[in-house]
Design brief:
Blueprint: E1 2-6, H1 10-22, E2 27-32, H2 44-48, H3 64-67, E3 70-74, E4 78-82, E5 87-90, E6 95-96, E7 99-102, E8 106-108, E9 121-122, H4 127-136, E10 142-146, H5 150-161, E11 165-170, H6 182-194, E12 198-201, E13 205-210, E14 214-219, E15 224-226, E16 229-232, E17 236-238, E18 254-255, E19 267-269, E20 274-278, E21 283-286, H7 290-304, E22 317-322, E23 325-331, E24 340-347, E25 352-359, E26 362-369, H8 375-384, H9 407-415
Parallel strand pairs: 1-2, 1-7, 2-3, 7-19, 9-16, 10-11, 10-16, 11-12, 18-20
Antiparallel strand pairs: 4-5, 5-6, 8-17, 13-14, 14-15, 20-21, 22-23, 23-26, 24-25, 25-26
Helix pairs in contact: 1-7
Length: 421
């Protein structure tokens, strides 16, 4: 059996390990447009800030490919997929497959702003991006980050730690709007400002100015900011380039079934490029979260090798820190509708904030700032879609834990058994 995987991040690695659980002998080939050993993309901001080395960014040990008998073709870009001929087109020649996984991830959204082709403008999702920025980020430089989402905020954090004067812009009225509510966003913004980040919200760049090199940006409000570095971080979109001319069906991402198989037999997709099943919304959605990408890849790998497996579904989950302030968020955090129940506990003095969102006595989302120790329990309640009516008032407590469960449920959780055993 010939397995070909396009991509070299979490979903592809999950697929390799999934395949080898079932098939020890089939050939596995990984195609990647990047030449690097598999690495954890969330760590690129830490590399910029000199908190990790290139070796420490690896998602798997150096001998991973040899250990799993994988042919890694780094720096070899997949250009197209010919599903009728069962080949992947590359500049160096076509590669045949019996089973194919598309795990091309996402690519940055670049707005149609004049001047973005000037020297000094970067995106921030790949290792090559951050290597270029690292060459110019130095004390005394000024940077503008377009976008106050996860990517933009992590870029800003790293730039400030490099001594770069940094301003973050966003059209929204708050930062991290996809994972925080208004109050939590205010708290995180205030914390970031104490560390040196400046913000201009309800604003954005309409022109990047300079000769060949960036010298300033013109804002929507007609003000001008001098800068040496511009980072475009307004968001990402599934990287569908390789399948655009094929008969593989896609919506926002590639459409897949419960086995992660696409509309074309023997072709699978996983990770940020696919639309997997979202447990909370009850339908197919892009789930651009690393743990989901790995799980989808592992299911796809086992299914490609003939195992009867299914992806049970996932949901949005983020565990990050900004300037030492940890935050975990999951599921639906900005609900709309009277069917949702919201519980909030706040302590501004120690920057703690807890928000639990319930629907029909089931946890469907949460925000935890600076008090994240029991987030794993809450995540488990979401995944299990557990009825929490008996103890839901305890969910908001700082010390919430298994002690608040009914005795038989607590015993089952701690022993791995079932309630009532």
């Amino acid at each position: 059996m010939k397995y070909v995987l396009i991509g070299n991040s979490a979903a592809a690695i999950g697929a390799v390990e999934g395949i080898r659980k079932v098939d020890k002998k089939g050939t596995i080939t990984i195609l990647s447009d990047e030449p690097y050993h598999t690495y954890s993309r969330p760590l690129i901001s830490y590399y910029l800030a000199d908190k990790v080395t290139e070796d420490q960014m690896r998602y798997r040990p150096e001998d991973f490919y040899a250990l799993h008998d994988v042919q890694f073709l780094g720096g070899r870009k997949a250009l197209a997929v010919k599903t009728g001929e069962k080949t992947v087109v590359t500049a160096e020649g076509d590669i045949p497959y019996d089973k194919l996984l598309i795990a091309t991830g996402s690519k940055p959204i670049v707005p149609p702003v004049p001047g973005l082709d000037r020297e000094g403008v970067y995106t921030f999702i790949k290792f090559d991006d951050v290597k270029k920025i690292k060459e110019v980020a130095a004390p005394g430089k000024k940077a503008v980050v377009i976008g106050a989402g996860l990517i933009g905020m992590k870029a800003a954090e790293a730039l400030v730690q490099c001594g770069v004067e940094t301003t973050v812009l966003d059209l929204s009225d708050r930062i991290l709007s996809s994972i925080l509510d208004t109050r939590a966003a205010e708290m995180v913004k205030a914390h970031a400002e104490t560390k040196g980040v400046a913000f201009k919200l309800n604003n954005t760049v309409v022109e990047v100015r300079g000769d060949n090199k960036v010298s300033s940006v013109l804002l929507k409000d007609n003000n001008e900011l001098p800068c040496d570095i511009v980072i475009v971080a307004i968001g990402v979109t599934p990287n569908l380039d390789v399948i655009k001319e094929s008969d593989i069906k896609y919506n926002r991402g590639i459409l897949v079934d419960e086995k992660m198989q696409t509309s074309v037999p023997d072709v699978y997709a996983a990770g940020d490029v696919s639309e997997g099943y979202d447990l909370l919304y009850g339908g197919q959605r892009v789930l651009p979260i690393l743990p989901n990408a790995y799980m989808q890849g592992e299911i796809a790998g086992q299914a490609m090798a003939g195992a009867e497996v299914q992806f049970g579904g996932g949901f949005a989950f983020n565990a990050i820190g900004l300037f030492g302030l940890p935050m975990n968020t999951a599921g639906i955090v900005n609900p709309e509708g009277s069917e949702y129940e919201i519980m909030v506990d706040e302590s501004s003095q120690d920057k703690c904030y807890r928000k639990i969102v319930l629907k029909n006595d089931r946890v469907v989302g949460f925000i935890l700032l600076n008090s994240i120790d029991r987030s794993g329990i809450l995540t488990g309640l979401i995944r299990e879609q557990a009825d929490v009516k008996a103890f839901k008032q305890d969910l908001i407590r700082q010390d919430f834990g298994y002690i608040h469960f009914a005795p038989d449920v607590r015993k089952a959780k701690l022993t791995g058994g079932k309630a009532g055993d």
